[in-house]
Design brief:
By secondary structure, this protein is α/β, with parallel strands linked by helices. The chain has one domain: Response regulator (Rossmann fold). It is 47% helix and 24% strand. A 7-stranded mixed β-sheet has the order 2-1-3-4-5-6-7, with helices on both faces.
Length: 201
């Protein structure tokens, strides 16, 4: 049981979304945000979107992935024509359902006319969502021919890590940058993800 309240979980997503929106997305002009329909994913997506708009003065579109609407989501992304698509899949939706939506969304995007970077949220990556998606031949071809990135966290050092994904026998991460977070942010990450309070926070 995590040592966090639901309110702290929302605040944690706001802090993480701010880092993602400012430091990871800040170099883009147009970004499509796609998340699943739950409170926590909506919180991190909205925080990242707001930080992106404030930092880059760019344009964004926010789409919700639900069962049966993957083609509609992909069509909206294609019409928007973004430079990057960030897939915010995680939160309180059961992980197997989340992975299914993630794969369906990527499959639909693979059929769209897009020239956009794909950025993957740490939660779906850590849960094996990318591995599952690559079992689909259309998704595998799409991703191996795209620029794909994922952000992860170093809980001990209080860092958000930005990685490029290379596809060999299995997805391999190459670290592109380290984004230090505040002591408060690191403490919340540790309490939420591994039930550990940081003594230095």
């Amino acid at each position: 049981m995590a040592k966090t309240t639901f309110a702290e979980e929302i605040y944690l997503r706001a802090l993480t979304g701010k880092v993602v929106g400012e430091s990871i997305l800040g170099g883009y002009n147009k970004v499509a945000f796609v998340s699943v329909k739950n409170t926590i994913c909506s919180a991190i997506s909205a925080a990242a979107e707001a930080a992106f708009i404030m930092t880059s003065k760019g344009r964004a579109i926010h789409l919700i992935a639900e069962d049966g609407n993957a083609d509609q989501v992909a069509a909206s992304v294609e019409e928007f024509d973004p430079e990057a698509v960030i897939l915010m899949f995680g939160g309180e939706t059961p992980i197997e359902e989340t992975k299914k939506l993630f794969v369906e969304t990527l499959k639909a995007l693979s059929g769209a006319d897009l020239d956009a970077d794909i950025i993957i949220h740490v939660r779906i990556f850590a849960a094996g969502g990318l591995d599952q998606a690559l079992k689909d031949s259309e998704v595998e071809e799409y991703l191996t021919n795209s620029d794909v990135y994922v952000y992860t966290v170093d809980l001990d050092r209080g860092l958000v890590i930005y990685n490029s994904v290379y596809f060999e026998e299995k997805p391999t991460l190459e670290r592109l940058g380290e984004l230090p977070v505040t002591a408060e942010h690191a403490d919340l990450l540790n309490r939420s993800l591994r039930d550990k309070t940081l003594t230095w926070a």
